Amino acid sequence: MIEQRIEQHFIDSADLKYKAAQSLSKPLAAAVQAMLASVTSGGKVLACGNGGSAADAQHFAAEFVGRFERERPELGAIALTTDTSILTAIANDYDYNVIFSKQVRALGQAGDVLLAMSTSGNSANVIAAIEVAHEREMTVVALTGRGGGKIGAMLRDTDVHVCVPHERTARIQEVHLLALHCICDGVDAQLLGDQEQAP
Predict the structure, then answer these.
(1) Are 179 and 28 in contact (CB under 8 A)?
(2) Fewer CB within 10 Å of terminal CB in the chain, N or C?
(3) DSSP 197
């Protein structure tokens, strides 16, 4: 019984990735170009999200600053989810909904990119971060699901929306991780030239 349930998770995840490949390839290519334009002109990517998306923000920043699969110069990225003193001070002194927006206001500059992740598209603190990013003339790359929610409605034409066509959080997060790897690989390919993918 449990084996069948596990197998179904693999099948459902693979099916969603297969279905999403064509619809997400164009926005992901746009995300690659936005981040590439930023980091090659001295900018950086600020990444945020809650829960699993917070972990994804850290995962992404690690692969940008360190490396993805190939050696290359370091790329500027900061996960806004990691400094517990900043997060707890802001949440305690102000409100949890501004834990990311205050960091974007402090660190973000015109030409930077905000990588904003919310599986529902409705996370209030991510929405607040996007509002500040727009004030700062930053490009927003939003990773959402469930139709995009409020975030999908507030994005500008110059922003990028990667919306996973699914309702289930776990499936959306699985595609978000693949999307982040596609972005990292795409940036590397643009910087270093195409290289055959390892099997």
Answers:
(1) yes
(2) C
(3) P
Residues 61-70: contacts with CB under 8 Å, at least 24 apart:
63/180, 63/181, 63/184, 64/39, 64/184, 64/187, 68/181, 68/184, 68/185, 68/187, 68/188, 69/184, 69/185, 69/188, 69/198, 70/188, 70/192, 70/195
Helices 169-192/52-65 angle, 10° precision: 10
CA proximity to 49, closest of 126, 162, 113, 137: 126
Residue 197, pLDDT above cutoff 70: no
Per-residue tokens: 165: 């066509």
Longest dimension (CA), the chain: 54
